[in-house]
Structure formats: C-alpha cells, structure tokens
Amino acid sequence: MEVTVYILRCSDGSYYTGLTKQEVEARVWEHNSGTYDGYTAKRRPVELVFTETYDRIIDAIARERQIKGWSRRKKEALIAMDYEALPDLSKRGPIEAK
C-alpha cells in the first residue's frame, strides 16, 4: 500500500500538509470541491506543491508530523527541493540573555 504525504498551497498563501492512501490528485480534488470541512474549506482553491510517497503508513505519518512542525521557510525550502538549506533552517537563532 502506498501512502502519499503532500503539501498544498492555499489561496491565502498558507500551507496545508496531509497524507492519503488514494491517488493524490483525487485527494486534491476533494479539498477543492469542499468534500470535507476543515482547514482548506475556506482557503480554496488549493494547489498541490509537494509530494513524497511511502510504502509504510507509519513512515508517512511520521513524515507528515515532522513537516507540520516546520516553519514556513523550512517548508518552502522542501517544496523548492533545496535540501541543503534544511539543516540550517532547523537551527535555532541565538538565545538572548535575560
């Protein structure tokens, strides 16, 4: 069973990360048709900007959670396939002294 992790760019410029066991194009159609109420329902139309496919659902769930925790800049680097930038975007900035 293949599972796809995907990122959508919403009409308001925000990103939505999800996963699906069905064809990703069908899932994007569901988002755009308003089949389900949720984050994208009021942010249509949405555009598919990134996908990764996994053989095991547990791996896809872990990846979805990881991406959801990322900053906007880090998600945009992933979408642009700028893998070299990802480690630097993971580092926290300098800690200010109190």
CATH architecture: 3-Layer(aba) Sandwich
The beta-strand count equals 3
Q: Could you tell me the radius of gyration in angstroms?
A: 15 Å
User: How many strands, what sense, and barrel or not for the largest sheet?
Assistant: 3 strands, antiparallel
Distance between the termini: 52 Å
Order of helices and strands: EEHEHHH
Compute the number of helices: 4
Oligomer: single chain
- Low-pLDDT regions: none
How would you write the strand order of the largest sheet?
2-1-3
Number of domains: 1
What is the CATH fold-level name?
A: GIY-YIG endonuclease
Family: Belongs to the UPF0213 family.
Domain GIY-YIG: 1-77
Protein name: GIY-YIG domain-containing protein
